Amino acid sequence: MNRRHQAVGRFYGLLALTAAIWGVQPLFIKLAVREITPVSLTVVRFILISATIFLIMRWRRKTPLLPPLASLFPLFCMGVTGVAVNNVAQFTGLQYSTVGNATLIASTTPAVTALLAVLFLRERLLPIQWLGIAISLLGVLVLFSKGSLEALLHISFNYGDILFFCAQLGWAAYMLIGFRVMRHLSALATTAWAGVFGALTTFVYGLFTGELHYAPLSTAGMAYMAYVVWVGGVCAMVFWNLGIKAVGAGQAAVFLNIMPLMGVGVGIAVLGEDFYWQECFGAVGILSGVYLLTQARHILHRRNVRHRNRYRAARRRMHA
Closest by alpha carbon to 33, among 73, 75, 92? Predict the structure, then answer.
């Protein structure tokens, strides 16, 4: 039993480390886009990530490198939404907004994904989950408007924060499509091929917009790139998948709450970013809403258990 607890504890440690890695990652992206355009960073990042995963697949020799033809279009859609839209929007947003806001808005992923699942997959949610989505999105609005009613009425939001939310829409779509693709394709192959299609799509977009160009990186720039590719990309994804396999997606999702804490902390400590009381209210709304959404069934289960226990205790007193 002790060994089992120790093993689970190690996986909890991996999940916490992964969330911390992802929480710090926007800082390295913000520093990297000072030397390279968001489009160029996205292309290079996913070429390297996909190449690394293909090498891992080749070494393991357990899964075929080529996907079935039926999976090509869904993989292309994953590349467009989860790589091109998500990364370019997030990387560009970091030129206009803060690392703290990037990680806070990223933590709305469960709420945005659940909403898209209801709209496009006709999934059903419990009333408490709808409440969680509403509170979470209200927190986003507070974050967008900095608590200003005038900004809300005139839809005068920070451009970077809007891009962060667009990035989350892209990521939510990526996850919903990926859930179906991975019924027939391994997680490694899905990630690698979505990365290839995303890099190609972003490359074409960059050619047409003129945002794709080569720029020699400084030593610091190469270090930022290495973190974004291999630490925040490959290592974090492997750690996350190991953690989910060991403790389950529900428990793993709780660790994502570390991300905004890390993001806000490093933004203030390293970049001297400001964090006002209005943003605190927005953060509380987002995290509270996501907690209600992801833990709704556990909350209701605990409540039902309490009610059952009270009912049984009352009956025992009546018969005593």
Answer: 92
Rounded distance, CA 135 to CA 241, Å? 29
200 vs 128: CA distance, rounded Å: 41
**How many domains would you assign to the chain?**
2
Among 201, 228, 187, CA closest to 33: 228
Instruction: Give pLDDT tens digits for 263-320.
Output: 778 888 888 877 777 777 777 777 787 777 767 767 776 776 676 777 676 667 776 6
Q: Are residues 231 and 100 in the same domain?
A: no
Amino acid at site 185? L
Q: State the Cα–Cα distance between residues 101 and 305, nearest whole angstrom.
A: 38
Find out whether 104 and 286 touch, Cβ atoms under 8 Å: yes
Domain that holds residue 195: 39-218+257-319
Report the chain's C-alpha Rg in angstroms: 21
CA dihedral (70, 75, 77, 80) in degrees, to 10, reads -150
